[in-house]
Amino acid sequence: MGTNVEQQAFTIVENGTIVTPRGFTAGGLHCGLKKTSRNDIGAIRCDVPATAAAVYTTNVFQAAPLKVTRESLSNGRLQAVIVNSGNANACTGQQGEEDAYAMRTATARELGVAEEDVAVASTGVIGELLKMDAVHSGISGLPARLGKEAEEAEHFSQAILTTDLVKKEACVAVEVNGKTITIAGAAKGSGMIHPNMATMLAFMTSDAVIGAEALQRLLRQATNHTFNMITVDGDTSTNDMLVAMSSGLAGNEELTTEHPDWEAFAAGFTYVCEVLAKAIARDGEGATKLVEVQVTGAVSDESAQAIAKTVIGSSLVKSAMFGADANWGRIIAAVGRAGQPVNPETVDIRLGEISVLAQSRPVVFDEEVALAYLQTDTVRIVVDLNHGEGTAIAWGCDLTYDYVRINAAYRT
């Protein structure tokens, strides 16, 4: 599949995890918030107060943990993150807010860090109060479960999942001042996914020396090109959060936009975001395939983004992808309603390498070849507007019967 990132700037760390960067430990366990025995509470801890940044859901109804995390992050620093799944602690009023603060207090005490250096994240069912006895039991058991090994990282990754079928992880290494900097990430997300922060939680760690302002700027830029370019079902949630922490233990000269190795670091950071974002799209509820929409020839990158997101979010396009139907009419219709400048006489569309539309006119193609391509687990739709220099890539998945089944019984 296509990528927005030049990979020459960094090295992929095979089997790297959220604890690969210097200074970080993580872990998770089952405390009873979920009906199953899957892990449902986890934590990341840094040996030192880390530079930190975050982006949040744009949903007007924001869950209590987001308020607590915003407060903790007001000084641009974090040393720990506590996260639970199985309950979103959203739309729970004053009690929910008190419970989120209680999670922060208990985590600070158990992990030996300052209370204002703890972020709180929750995901799961909206509108139900947390079982705080279970939460406190889980938090008290976490210190013995935190570690640097792959097993502890696995336990954390499992603790943040809801309807996800698989964990999402990525890790790269970048050379900065001749020192090896590591950037890693772990995420959850499967349903209620839509650009402008989807129902996802994502956590990134690094050992680079970087200031809070520079990290926040990079996080926003990377998010706009990755997590904000995915969709599963067009819904955004109340709890979406992406938190990045950098320990500074690599000992490099502080990274700024003027640093000679900034572009390499930014490329590695963005790549981790992209891998996680695509993994979320691929694991969409009920999905059978990852769908990528690449738009070129738009009047601007922003216009290309809007068109790509409209196509990838179209229920008709997504349904056609599920049925392996090369119905390019669904695609051109989505392009036309995106509200962006388009010359209706110059549009080309390809399904992979199969041309189906040229200069807005149908192309005769082999239906059997197209069917075989659309039945693969990764499909690329290419739309060339031939109208400018703007480009963008968006990711999503097909819309299946199982999506309805899963969400029709989410609470039960």
Overall description:
With 412 residues, the chain is an alpha+beta fold. It folds into 2 domains: 7-282, L-amino peptidase D-ALA esterase/amidase; 290-408, Roll (Ubiquitin-like (UB roll)). The chain has helices at residues 64-72, 93-111, 132-141, 150-159, 212-225, 262-282, 301-313, 315-322, 328-336, 367-374, 401-408, and strands spanning 11-12, 24-29, 41-56, 77-87, 118-125, 168-176, 179-188, 201-206, 241-246, 290-298, 348-351, 354-358, 361-362, 378-384, 390-397. The protein is globular and about 65 Å long. It starts with 10 loop residues before the first strand and ends with a helix. 57% of the residues are buried.
The topology string of helices and strands comes to EEEHEHEHHEEEHEHEHHHEEEHEEH
User: Which CATH top level class of the largest domain fits?
Assistant: Alpha Beta
Overall structural domain count = 2
Query: What is the CATH H-level superfamily of the largest domain?
Result: L-amino peptidase D-ALA esterase/amidase
Mean pLDDT: 90
What is the global morphology? globular
Oligomer: single chain
- Please state roughly what percent of the residues sit in beta strands, choosing from under 5%, 5-15%, 15-25%, 25-35%, 35-45% or over 45%: 25-35%
The rounded Rg comes to 22 Å
- The assigned structural class equals alpha+beta
- The CATH architecture term of the largest domain is 4-Layer Sandwich
What gap, in angstroms, lies between the N and C termini?
Answer: 37 Å
Annotation field: number of helices: 11
Main sheet: strands, sense, barrel = 9 strands, mixed
Protein name: Arginine biosynthesis bifunctional protein ArgJ
Pathway: Amino-acid biosynthesis; L-arginine biosynthesis; L-ornithine and N-acetyl-L-glutamate from L-glutamate and N(2)-acetyl-L-ornithine (cyclic): step 1/1; Amino-acid biosynthesis; L-arginine biosynthesis; N(2)-acetyl-L-ornithine from L-glutamate: step 1/4
Site (Cleavage): 198-199
Enzyme class: transferase
